[in-house]
TrEMBL record:
Structural component of flagellum, the bacterial motility apparatus. Part of the rod structure of flagellar basal body. The gene is flgB. InterPro entries: FlgB. The basal body constitutes a major portion of the flagellar organelle and consists of a number of rings mounted on a central rod. It comes from Sutcliffiella horikoshii. This is Flagellar basal body rod protein FlgB. Belongs to the flagella basal body rod proteins family.
Length: 129
């Protein structure tokens, strides 16, 4: 019997993704004036995530094996276009916007995770406050 549903695991992956994205955005902001710095961007790696989901639901040993089982649910993309004369491609306005969007996403996931654990706590206590 599983105590935690797959939705909690999905929320956990989302929180990990948000943390990695926050780290990349912070790194970009810190290097806004560094010559020839190329911004980093974290993108979800849906192909591998989908492949692992299929593999996890394999119901028979005779089914086809899947290859490329990486633990990464997201990947880093190094964009190479340039905005400034010194070769740096960090746009501080875009980075700050991405940071705000990521914070909203993170807090939404945390709120949902908290609700899941609150429900579990309610069940454990038998509905008694």
């Amino acid at each position: 019997m599983k105590i935690f549903s797959t939705s909690i695991q999905a929320l956990e992956k989302g929180i990990q993704y948000s943390g990695a994205k926050h780290k990349a955005i912070s790194h970009n902001i810190a290097n806004v004036d560094t010559p020839n710095f190329k911004r980093k961007e974290i993108k979800p790696n849906f192909g591998e995530t989908y492949q692992r989901a299929l593999e996890a639901n394999k119901t028979d040993d005779r089914h086809r094996e899947f290859s490329g089982s990486s633990n990464k649910a997201f990947k880093m993309d190094n964009t190479s276009y340039s905005y400034s004369h010194n070769g740096n491609n960090v746009d501080i306005d875009k980075e700050m916007s991405d940071l705000a969007e990521n914070q909203i996403y993170y807090y939404t996931l945390i709120d949902q995770m908290s609700g899941k654990f609150q429900s579990l706590q309610n069940v454990i206590k038998g509905g008694r406050g």
